[in-house]
Amino acid sequence: MNSKILVVEEKEQVALLTLNRPEVMNALNFPLLHALRDTLEALRTRMDIRVILITGAGDRAFCSGADLKERATLSPDQVREYIYTIRNLFTFIEFLNKPVIAAVNGLALGGGTELALASDIRIASENATLGLTETRLAIIPGAGGTQRLPRLVGRGKAKELIFTGRRVDAQEALDIHLVNRVCKPEALMEECMKMAAMICETGPIAIEQAKYAINYGLESAIHTGLAIESNAYWVTIPTEDRTEALAAFREKRKPKFQGK
After folding, report:
1. CA 207 to CA 101: how far, in whole Å?
2. Which of 110, 134, 196, 206 is catalytic?
3. In CATH, what number is assigned to the domain containing residue 225?
4. Is 114 designated active site?
5. Are residues 72 and 84 in the same domain?
6. 181 and 61 share a domain?
């Protein structure tokens, strides 16, 4: 599954995907988008992989967004194809049946911030810089940024950041709830793996249903959201994992979940 532009490593039920174009700050061109899409689609049905972790190669950038050198060569129709491709990919990530953690190790601008926004959890190094800077290029965020950012930081702050194209450092990103945690650069991957390990201790079906309930419930009125939650809960009741959890509690041991 490894390729030159996307490196895939698997360890302890975690798939680490590294955007591997450090010479251009891990910018997203068509080949990288396609590699990321194909890899995630293959991982979707892998029961042995519980968490997806996405980061960028090197210590300068998580992802600097669209590859502007490639963009300059594209026709208007090809630009539309690019936007369609990246928007669908990030939506796929948001609704993937596994938790996705973004390890933001440096610069994350435009599509880079949008990739982080599409992830479930964002952990940033102290040297991270994020921003939806598209308006400074006379365009707007096109991979979900206008929708996901206000849902995280609020309408007013999202408008401020998008209208000005202003960048925020890691501490401000934490203060406005754009990221979940901030840590020293050398500790970033360790912190992400700790988070992933905690998730891997939980029931796989429960995590899938919890993510489903949160994602779809937040887009609904609360009564509809509560119904979605109820239906998701019902899915967990007949599972072997739920029975195993109760048995493990009685026997004072850690449960061994099988995703069944």
Report:
1. 14
2. 134
3. 1.10.12.10
4. yes
5. yes
6. yes
Of the candidates 18, 12, 14, 4, the one whose C-alpha atom is nearest the C-alpha of residue 103 is 18
List all residues 6 or more positions away from 242 whose beta carbon is below 8 Å from its beta carbon.
203, 236
What is the domain extent for residue 43? 6-200
Task: Establish whether 134 is a catalytic residue.
Answer: yes
| pTM attached to this predicted model | 0.93
Choose, from 61, 65, 106, 114, the residue flagged as catalytic: 114
pLDDT in tens, the chain (260 residues): 445 999 999 999 999 999 999 999 999 999 999 999 999 999 999 999 999 999 999 989 999 998 888 888 989 999 999 999 999 999 999 999 999 999 999 999 999 999 999 999 999 999 999 999 999 999 999 999 999 999 999 999 999 999 999 999 999 999 999 999 999 999 999 999 999 999 999 999 999 999 999 999 998 999 999 999 999 999 999 998 899 889 988 988 888 888 89
Domain contains 243:
yes
Residues 6 or more apart whose CB falls under 8 angstroms from that of 153 comprise: 161, 176, 177, 178
Answer yes or no: do 11 and 62 share one domain: yes
111 a catalytic residue: yes
Domains in the chain: how many in total?
2
Residue 209 within a domain: yes
Asked whether residue 233 falls in the same domain as residue 149, the answer is no
Tell me, yes or no, if 165 is annotated catalytic: no
